[in-house]
Design brief:
The complex is a heterodimer of chains A (about 425) and B (about 100). Chain A has about 425 residues and is an alpha+beta fold. Chain A has helices spanning about 25-30, 30-40, 175-180, 180-190, 210-215, 220-225, 225-230, 265-270, 345-355, 365-380, 405-415; strands at about 45-50, 60-65, 70-75, 80-85, 100, 105, 115, 120-125, 130, 135, 155-160, 160-165, 195-205, 240-245, 250-255, 300-305, 305-310, 315-325, 330-340. Chain B has one domain (about 1-100): Rieske Iron-sulfur Protein (3-layer Sandwich), CATH 2.102.10. Classes of the chains: A alpha+beta (about 425), B mainly beta (about 100). The interface of A and B includes residues 112 and 122 of A.
Chain lengths: ~425, ~100
């Protein structure tokens, strides 16, 4: 029944121009979601798969996903990085089950088809048949050529230790995909320094994947939802800030510099702001300015469709969005540091990651409200959101009191989805 | 040195241009005959632990039946992926219709 947008059934048509009012069905419709997977995750776009530091040695691999497809990020003997689809060429088995490991080659457990680390099929059991009493029984046809039956290999782009992949080998170069402004903020974090992996946390959030992108394109909520942020001065709506997008409006940077915290006009009306509150152990906020920040204390990069690059004071991480249906996604955080960090700085980054991790003072809130949003959408799919803070148009701004980045993302979304 | 030679199999039981295997002093040993010469190697592939005697001999190359890794039967060296570690090759001689192998 629900042929979305441009099918013969017009039930789900986004009426009118503009993107300040997103229909609820854009978050709940399964057919629409399938089309998003095809258009954003499986073609035309680069998707984050991991950090080179996760697979430092030849043979190291990491299993991850792009959209709903399982893929393997692997470093071959020659140190080259490859991304292959985790589907055996024989009977379609998702053969790789470990999240991480080190291998000389991959073997499917079902019939032991064997692949090298670049995805080439090396050998198949009984290819020449089985000898029995002087006869040879069975075997693959004489014209069976292993070269025709490798794993599906993805296009790979690495930049300063970050790995992206695409099922679409015609995708534009990564640098063009990000655009010069966003690339500049990307290189601010990833400037070629060697990375170290500090740890992971993962959560399953019962909401639509786009809500996570919106959450990090939304500077309206942090000072209102995350009262912890406000109380301890990490984020206030009157922080000096800039919001920037790429030319397509699909990626964004939310750039802010924290003020001194405490009481001010912006927090005066927030009911849970507690002026007298102080931390029993304030090492969590032992923030040390780093030269590479070049000013901003927080830069949140949303790279469409599937990753967020976060710098919140001394805590740096990637957050990987892995959708699983229109109303659920896995959210995988990789907390990292830099090889040049002192032991003290590493400890500081780990402590500050508690702001966002499972001991979270901040990000746990986002998972909750995303679930609540999805519940509202499910209840009345023909209704719509309002994203009109700062107007109805899409433009870069030098303040945070706007939902322009959300409108921007939906401008791009409509362009791609309504083709 | 002499006592290291073990009579392993009748020469007539090693098929021409092919492979067979027997247990020798508790070891699984593959025997080959090609161009009139006899050879012996470990019978178990170093990659997937399959029995090489179920594989196929091409000249001096034994191909594993499981993943088509190949070894040179003269010295045991791996010739192509996925084989990467050598198998052991053993000296053989034929005396009185018996193939003798030296496992030392």
């Amino acid at each position: 029944m629900s042929q979305p947008l441009d099918g013969p059934c017009t039930e789900h048509r986004w009426s009118g121009e503009g993107t300040s009012r997103t229909p609820f069905w854009a978050y709940t419709d399964d057919n629409l979601y399938r089309r998003e997977l095809e258009r954003f995750f499986y073609s035309g776009h680069w998707n984050y798969v991991g950090l080179e530091a996760e697979i430092p040695q030849p043979g190291d691999f990491k299993r991850t996903t792009i959209g709903e497809r399982s893929v393997i990020l692997v470093r071959a003997e020659d140190n080259e990085i490859h991304v292959v689809e985790n589907v055996c060429a024989h009977r379609g088995v998702q053969f790789c089950r470990e999240r991480y490991g080190n291998r000389k080659d991959f073997t499917c457990p079902y019939h032991q088809w064997n692949y090298d680390l670049k995805g080439n099929l090396l050998g198949v059991p009984f290819r020449r048949g089985v000898k029995q009493n002087g006869r040879i029984n069975g075997g693959m046809p004489a014209d069976f050529d292993p070269k025709d039956h490798g794993l599906n290999r993805l296009a790979v782009a690495t930049r300063n230790g970050v790995v992206f992949a695409s099922f679409d080998h015609d995708v534009e170069p990564l640098e063009d995909y990000l655009g010069p402004d966003i690339l500049g903020y990307f290189d601010r974090v990833f400037d070629g320094r060697k990375l170290t992996i500090l740890g992971y946390n993962r959560q399953r959030i019962p909401g639509n994947w786009k809500l996570m992108q919106e959450n990090i394109k939304d500077p309206y909520h942090p000072g209102l939802l995350h009262t912890w942020f406000v109380t301890f001065g990490l984020w206030r709506a009157d922080n000096q800030a800039e919001l920037k997008m790429d030319a397509h409006f699909r990626h964004a940077a939310m750039i802010s510099t924290r003020g001194s915290g405490g009481k001010g006009a912006v927090t005066a009306g927030v009911s849970s702001f507690k002026e007298q509150m102080s931390l029993h152990d304030d090492r969590l906020l032992d923030v040390v300015q780093e030269p590479w920040w070049r000013g901003p204390t927080a830069v949140m990069l949303t790279l469409f469709p599937s990753v967020i690059i976060q710098q919140q004071v001394n805590s740096v991480s990637t957050r990987h969005i892995q959708p699983s249906g229109p109303d659920s996604f896995d959210f995988v955080w990789t907390h990292f540091g830099f090889e040049e960090d002192s032991a003290e700085m590493t400890r500081r980054r780990l402590r500050q990651s508690n702001l966002f991790g499972p001991g979270g003072f901040v990000s746990a809130d986002d998972g909750e409200v995303i679930e609540f949003s999805q519940e509202g959408f499910r209840q009345k799919p023909e209704h719509r959101t309002i994203a009109e803070l700062g107007g109805r148009s899409v433009e870069n701004t030098d303040h945070m009191v706007t939902e322009t980045l959300i409108r921007g993302m939906y401008a791009y979304w409509r362009k791609v989805m309504e083709q | 040195m002499n006592e290291d030679w073990i009579a392993a199999i009748a020469a007539a039981e090693v098929p021409e241009d092919d492979v067979t295997a027997v247990q020798v002093a508790g070891h699984d040993i593959a025997f080959y005959k090609t161009e009139g010469q006899y050879y012996a190697t470990d019978n178990i592939c170093t990659h997937g632990q399959a029995r090489l005697c179920d594989g196929f001999l091409y000249g001096h190359e034994i191909e594993c039946p499981l993943h088509q890794g190949r070894f040179d039967i003269r010295d045991g060296r791996p010739l192509c992926a996925p084989a990467s570690a050598p198998i052991k090759a053993y000296a053989v001689k034929v005396e009185n219709g018996q193939v003798l192998v030296n496992l030392s």
